[in-house]
Input
Amino acid sequence: MAYKDMTVLIVDDFLTMRRIVRKILRDLQFENIIEAEDGSAAVEVLSTNKVDLIVSDWNMPKMTGIELLKHVRSQESTKDLPFLMVTAEAQKENIVEAVKAKVSNYIVKPFTAATLEEKLGKIVPK
Amino acid sequence: METILARLGSGVIEGPDDLMGIGDCLNLLDDLEKKDGFSQKMARRVNELRLIFKRLILEESPDPAGDWDRSRNLISGLVNGNDDDPGEYTAQVQIDAQPPPGEDRPEIIWPEDDMGSPGENTDSGVAPADSAEVFTEQQSSEAQDSLDNELQDPELIKEFIEESKEHLASIELNMLALETDPNDSEAINAVFRPFHSIKGVAGFLNFTEIHHLSHEVENLLDMARSNKIAVDDAIIDIVLTATDILKVMLSELEGDDTAEKKMGSAIVEQFLERVKNFSSNTPAVGIPVRKVGTILAEHGVIDEGAADEFAEISRNKGQKLGETLIEEGVASTREVSKALREQRHSVESAASVRVDTRKLDNLVDMVGELVIAQSMVLQNPDVLDIKDQKFQKDSVQLNRITAELQRISMSMRMVPIKATFQKMIRLVRDLSKKEGKDVNLEMKGEDTEIDRNMVEEIYEPLVHMIRNSVDHGIELPRDRTSAGKEPTGTILISAEQKGGNIVIDIKDDGKGLDVDKIRAKAIERGIISATDQLDDKSIFELIFHAGFSTRDKVTEVSGRGVGMDVVKKCVERLRGKMEVTSVLGKGSHFQLKLPLTMAIIDGMVIQVGTERFIVPTIALKESLRPKRDSYFTLQGKGEMVKVRDLLMPLVRLHTFFGEEPKYHNPWEGLLLVVNEGKKGYCLLADEIVGRQEVVIKSLGGMFRQLRGISGGAILGDGKVALIVDVKGIISTYEDSTNDGSGRRRLD
Output
C-alpha cells in the first residue's frame, strides 16, 4: 500500500510533538493522519477507524505507549498492526520490554524524515 | 518444555531487523526458563541469547552479522539439546574482526532458506552498525541541522512555547504533592513528563539549551522515579529552579528567535553543573531493598562473603549480580529468579495503598455525618425515654465505635509535618548566606501529624515567618558578638499537638521586637494615634497590620510585597490564631495555633434569642458575666465593659443577627471575650449551651457574602446552627461605630 493510501494514527500527549510528527509524515506523502493525545484516546480511535499504522509516544499520562501496545496486540483485529514506538534516548533500556510486547520497531527522538522512512521500510512494506 | 522448544525451533526471525520475531523468541525464552528440566547449560545459552538480542534490538552490536549467526546457533543448540559446550563468543571485543572460526561453534542445523542468509540480511538495507551511530551526539545534531529548515516554523514555535508554559505551570503543583509524599510516583511522573516532552520537542526544533537543560532534569527525575535517589528538598529545589530557568528561556524565545543565547549562559552552565554533580554524587537511597546476594545467602545458595565478591565482579563487568552468578555457574537461573521475586515482593509489602484524596475526604465527611446521625437518633426524646439496660449499654458501645471510626478516618489524612519543616533548612541556609548571617535551625516535634490539606496551607506562612526571623530577628555575627551573644544565631521551630490543635512555635534568639520603634512607626504610618494607650502585647500585634514594616528599605529577603499581615490572614483563614511575644535584645517568639483539621472545629454552642450559634473555641479568650457596675457607655465610643483593668467594647450579637434576646442587660446574659486586631471585645449572648466538636458545612455560593457567618453545622439534636465568624462581626461592628465618630479605625 502506498503511504498516501494508509491511515496513520499519531499518539502523543504533547500537541507540538504531534504537529512535528504530522509534518514529517506529510513529507513522506502520508495524507490520512489521525491524532490522539494518549493511549486511551487512541484505543477509542482504533475502535471506530481503520488504522494502518500507529506512531506512538512512550511516555503519556493515563495510558502509556507500552500499555497501548499491549492493548493493540491483545485485540484480534489489530494484533499485527504496524506499531512504531517513539522513544527518548534515555529510555533505550526499556526498549527490550517493548520488543517483548511485540512492538514493530522504535525510533529515537529527534528523528528526520529519512530515519522515519527507513524505519517504516522495515515494518510496512511499501 | 518440548512444545516451547518446538516453537522456538519453528519460530522464524526474519533478520536482525525483525523485532517482532525477536520479541517472540525472547518471550519463549522466558517461558522456557520456568520449566522443569531447564539445565545450567541451557541457562548459559539463554542468557547469551538475551544479551545478543538486546544488542541487536538497541542497534549497539559491533558485529550484527556475527551476532545474528551466533543467535541462530544458540537457538539450534537449545532446540536440539546439543550437548556441546556453547563455547565463548565475544562480539564486543571483535569489532570489525572476522566471525569466530566456524569449527568452534555448533553446527548450523536450520536450513538456509528457512532463515535467510545472515549475510544478506546485513548487506541489504542499512547495516545496523551504521544506524547505531544515530545515537551519537554528532549524528543527532546533524539530524537537527537538516530539520531546521523544515521545522523552524514560527507557528510551531509559538505553539511549543505556549504548550511548554502550560506544562511547566503544572510542575509546581505536583512538586507540592511530592513534598507531602516523596514516594508519590504518580506525582514524580507528572513532573517528569513535561520535562520529557519539552526535551523531545526542543530536540526537533534545535533549541539546544532548552534541550540540554530539560534533559539533565529529566535524568535526575528518572533516577527518582526508579528509586535510585530520594526526592528531598535539594531535588525539589533543582526542579523548581530548572522550571524558572526554562520559563525565562521560553519567554526569550517568544520575543526573538535568536534570543536564547542571551539568557546568561553562565547561569545555565552553572546550574547544569550542579545538577550533574548532584546526580553523580547522590548515593542510592529510598526504600531499603534487600540485596539479591543477601537473599541468596539466606537461601543457602552462596555465602554472604562470596555474594559480596561476585557483586564486585558484576559491577566491574557492568552486569547485574544475578547475571554474573549464573554465568559463573554459582547459582542457577531458577534460584536467582526466585531471589528476584522475593526481592520484588519485599518492596511491595513495604508499600502502602494509595487512595485518591477525594475518596478520603468523602469518607471523612460521611463519618462526620454518621456521628451526627447517631446523636440525632440517641437524642430523640422517645429514645431518651428508653430505660432498658441493654439498650443503654449498646448505645455506649455504638458511641465508642463511631468515635474510634472518626478518629481513624481523620488520622488517614494526617501526614507528619516533617517534610514542611525540612524545606525550611534550605531556606534558612540560602537566606543566611545571602544576608551574611550565621543561623542554625533547630527543629522539634517534626513527627507531629497534621491534616494533609493543612500542610499545603501552612507552608507559605511558615516560609514567611522564617524569612522574617532571619531577616529581622537574627543579627549580623559581629553585632551579636558585641551584644555578648554567640555569633551564630538560632532559630527553633517546633510543633506539638495540644488538644484539637497543633501549635507551631518559631523562636529566635535575635534582637527581639523594639516596642518604641514599632509604636513610632505605627503612629507615622497612621495605624494608631499618638494618644492610643497600648500595652506591649498590643504593640507587637501591630506588626501584623497591613503595610507595616519596621525596615526602611525593602530587602530582598523579606521584602516580597507581603508582610506579616499576609501570614496572619493565612492563619486566620485556617481558623487559627497567631501570637507574638518578644524580649528586646533576647529574641522573639511567634506562635501559631492551628486546628488539626479544617473539616471539624471545636465550638462553643451559644444561645441568642431563639437561635443557637457556634463560636469556634479557638477564638475565645474567656466567658464571663460582668458585674452591673463594670458596664457603662462612653461618649463617642458606645457601650463598654470593664474586664479586670481593660475596657472592651460590647458587641450585641442579638442586634447583629436580628434576634429578640432573653436578656438585654449584659450582667444578666453572658459575655464572650474575644481578641481581634489588637484588642479585646465582649460579645453578648444569652447563655452557653455547651461545647461540641462540629463538622463544618459550607453554606454554598448564595451565602458566601454573608458577613459574620463562616458556615453551618448540624447539632446533636439534628438542628442546624450557624458558625460565627468573629472577625467578620468585629469588623462590621467597627464599621458602624466608626462612622462619624472620628476615631481611627484599627483594623
